[in-house]
Amino acid sequence: MQITKMHALGNNYIYVSEFEESLDDASLADLAVAVSDIRRGIGSDGLILIGPSNVADVRMRIFNADGSEAENCGNGLRCVAKYAYEHKYVSDTRMRIEVKTGVVEAEVHTGADGKVHSVTVDMGVPQFGAQHVHYQGPPTSGDDVTLAVGDATFTGTLVSVGNPHFVTFVEDALTAPVAEVGPLIERHPYFPQRLNVEFVTPRHRNELDFRVWERGSGITYACGTGACASVAAGVRQGRLDNRVTVHLLGGDLHIEVSDGRVYMTGEAVEVMRGEYLWPRVSGA
């Protein structure tokens, strides 16, 4: 099959166009695991499909490196918008993209070469509280929940931006124990459908240091939905202004909260195109 590898701030996926390729839905989880393998596959944070939609200009489906299907992906949305525009699936710089939980709007920004270099995505209205992340722990009021993780406790704001997040404000995000604590919170029994975990520290009211443990993929260089959830939580709590630069391992995202909606702007980069040979073993 023809594949394209793209990244946005180092959050990299293998993209396959369903306009061009016919894929077996039952094998998509196995395909995602196979292409993500850095030694026996291509190496990526997962697989993203770009296909036709009955309700939008194009549809995006996201599969994590472990084969699980995600609801949304901010960095993936920007790359899908770039792909759709440059492959002429859409002619307007503004487009609508269907994801598992609805439809989002994106606008591509082109350079003198006619290529898309950055994209703004309207991520919609964030939803706060336990009911929006399938929380099944003891009754809690407000947006926050405190978890005992090993010998420590972490308090996180529960936010959904189409997918679930636990945003914890820590003393220093850059030295936070992401690899140790992230998977324990992701798979905590209070969250049977798991969730993404963000460790964040405001530098100033318009700057945020950010680390993430992504559900199904682990530590990644960037998480667009996580950055949006974190800024939304910070604005709601009075920690941040409405326009914030988020410093991720892979670079910066610009997040704006306006009239309750969250807008994300950042890069989208094509790495390579090629043909992927996948042995379709029966029963694999």
Task: Summarize the structure in words.
This protein has 284 residues and is α+β, with helices and mostly antiparallel strands. It has 2 domains: 2-124 and 268-275, Diaminopimelate Epimerase, Chain A, domain 1, CATH 3.10.310.10; 127-255, Diaminopimelate Epimerase, Chain A, domain 1 (Roll). 15% of the residues lie in helices and 43% in strands. The chain is built from 4 helices and 19 strands.
Secondary-structure blueprint of this entry?
Elements: E1 2-8, E2 11-17, H1 28-36, E3 46-51, E4 58-64, E5 69-70, H2 74-86, E6 94-99, E7 102-110, E8 116-124, E9 127-128, E10 144-149, E11 152-160, E12 164-169, H3 178-186, E13 196-204, E14 207-214, E15 218-219, H4 224-236, E16 243-248, E17 251-258, E18 261-267, E19 269-275
Parallel strand pairs: 2-3, 4-6, 12-13, 14-16
Antiparallel strand pairs: 1-2, 1-19, 3-4, 4-5, 6-7, 7-8, 8-18, 9-11, 10-11, 11-12, 13-14, 14-15, 16-17, 17-18
